[in-house]
Amino acid sequence: MECDRYGVSDRTATSFASVVLQDIGIVHEGEASHVAAINFAAGWALERNVKIKVFSVSKSSIEAIRSPKVKSNFVLSVTDNLYNAKDLVSLVWVKTHAGNPGNELADHFAKIASSCGSDMSIPAPYSYVKKVCKEFLMNEWNSYWKNSTTGKRTKEILPSAILDLLMSNKYVIYLFTNHGPIPAYLCRFKILNNPDCLCGEHGDVDHYLTSCMYTKDYHLVLPTGAARTHWTRKLCKNYLFLNRLKSISEISRKICDDLQRL
Ligand SMILES: [Zn+2]
């Protein structure tokens, strides 16, 4: 804040800066702390009817305050306060850690405030809550996935939970789980007496994907290890690949029907 230019005493300036910077140091993550400090400065200037210039290192906070698209009630309330103080307060962005003495002083006070500042309650923005919830759910999911003893095949392909593989395409689920209209799976449920294919080999998903003579027009070369996760992730969004999986599945279903009639 440029106080000397507007006739504010050094002492007042220092104590104001200290309060604002304490706020910067104690609040929780995100840009809300910067917005809160700017809001405090606007209230301070309005109360004393003095012109101030607020230097902030947070470009996104300044942009949020200026944006007509912001939905956060907290930012909107700050925008209202700034509008009321529009002739008194101007906002300027400064680069952080660029040797700017004011910024260095701010960092100094922020460090002090982090150990002896008072608590300040700032509502968390929706995007922040969403991020925290997502992280929590992914950690829970991954922990469950890691500790579960079932789904060995799926774990080989997908060692950890990946959000973009949440899908309902049944052919991809057949591929991941080794379930579906294949002799090996139907035999487990006694729908078929034998897990083997009509060609005589073991009738699991990989057999139809790679070696069965009845599906040779659609065969694939399956990568192993970590490459398989990457391959699966990429191909499961490929329309041609999904169609190929569908064709293979239709053939294996027909084979199962034939085996049932034998
Ligand atoms: Zn076969």
From TrEMBL:
InterPro entries attached to this UniProt entry: RNaseH-like_sf, RNaseH_domain, RNaseH_sf
Sequence intervals crossing the membrane: none
GO terms of molecular function: nucleic acid binding; RNA-DNA hybrid ribonuclease activity
Pfam name, any one: RNase_H
Domain (RNase H type-1) ranges: 59-113
Signal peptide as annotated in the record: none
UniProt protein name: RNase H type-1 domain-containing protein
